[in-house]
Amino acid sequence: MTDANPSAPEPAPLDLRAVAAGIERTNELLTRVLAEVATTPSTHAVFVDAGYVYAAAGRLVAGTEDRRAFELDAEGLIEAFIDKARTIFPDSRLLRVYWYDGARRRIHTPEQQSIAELPDVKVRLGNLNANNQQKGVDSLIRSDLESLARHRAISDAVLIGGDEDLVSAVEAAQGYGARVHLWGIEAAGGRNQAEPLLWEVDSQRTFDLDFCKPYVSRRTGYESFGEAVARGPAPSRDDVRFVGARVAAQWLGSRGHDSLSELLPGHPYLPGTVDQELLVEAESLLGLSLRGHADLRRALRDGFWDHLRMQF
Q1: pLDDT digits (tens, 9 = 90+) for 187-245
Q2: CB 73 within 8 A of CB 80
Q3: In b/e form, how buried is each residue of 209-243, taking b as 16+ CB within 10 angstroms?
Q4: Residue 156 forms beta bridges with which residues?
């Protein structure tokens, strides 16, 4: 047999020198890329739940969570957070500080406008309902944390907050390789950060009274609602716990054990509607607002759960 196509051209001889030169150029390119990656500093961002900061710092320094009763030097506190992050992440650059707060119809207050004008600070607003409760802030934190981690814009995230709803934000960021560091403010009594949140983060840090005191000042002449109602000593935790049990008995009597079985899987947390009912009824029985007393609100919930769990 003869070749099928005797006229086909012979393949060109392999130019080994050209191949070697191509490989060398590729190696040089990879070396430059790796060197650039090695010298590029890591990046961190600070995510601040302003509602948590106001409540925790106000309670610790001024004895109340009522924003109207004290002034917070937000600019000074943000700068202190930046300085602290700089010492903890010396080889990392700051992307920016995210300041999450609530406002009616998401319209900046004058104070929020001044914070938004600070360098390296981004103000993100959730809504503020009729009870002055923030809505949508946790979802904003999760969205920003997850997006920045997914796009490798940050390697470390400092989260200043305490709500259990932030657990999903932490998990989302960690899923993309970012490390999340939880910072908190010392609780005047008990704890002001949810345990599931403490369990999920990569590190924890708490700021004490000495750290917070320069940035919080009590407004002279202002008296919060709770102080105006009860000028005498505040009730003890045991007193409030008893009231919580009493409200639980009323709640159980009106709704029955079927409702109880729906609550138990969520222990120690109450649905928002039940928690609000508990607070309103307890304040009516005590003749005292508990809005500025986080430790007493925790005692109230403990008493509520104590009674419910005794039914099984």
Answers
A1: 876 788 888 999 999 999 999 999 999 999 988 765 554 444 444 566 778 888 888 88
A2: no
A3: eebbeebbeeeeeeebbbbeeeeeebbebeebbbb
A4: 44, 179
pLDDT in tens, 112-152: 899 999 999 999 988 765 555 666 788 899 999 999 999 99
Which one, of 249, 252, 272, 273, lies nearest residue 261 by Cα?
A: 252
Contacts of 54 (CB under 8 A, 6+ apart): 65, 67, 72
Decide: helix, strand or coil at residue 61. helix
Query: What are the Cα distances from residue 23, in Å, to 29, 32, 35, 36, 116?
Result: 10, 14, 18, 20, 52
**Residue type at position 27:** N
Q: Is the backbone of residue 175 left (phi > 0), alpha (psi -120 to 50) or beta?
A: alpha
Residue 219 corresponds to which tokens in the numbers above? 């407004």
Q: In 3D, which of 159, 164, 166 has the Cα closest to residue 185?
A: 159
- Is 105:129 a contact under the CB 8 Å cutoff? no
- In 89-163, alpha helices (H): 110-116, 137-150
Mean pLDDT of all residues belonging to the chain = 81
pLDDT (0 to 100) of residue 240: 85
Whether the predicted pLDDT of 1 surpasses 60: no
Distance (Å, rounded) from C-alpha 235 to C-alpha 290? 10
Query: 35: number of CA atoms within 13 Å, CB side?
Result: 6
Query: What's CA 158's distance to the chain center, in Å?
Result: 9
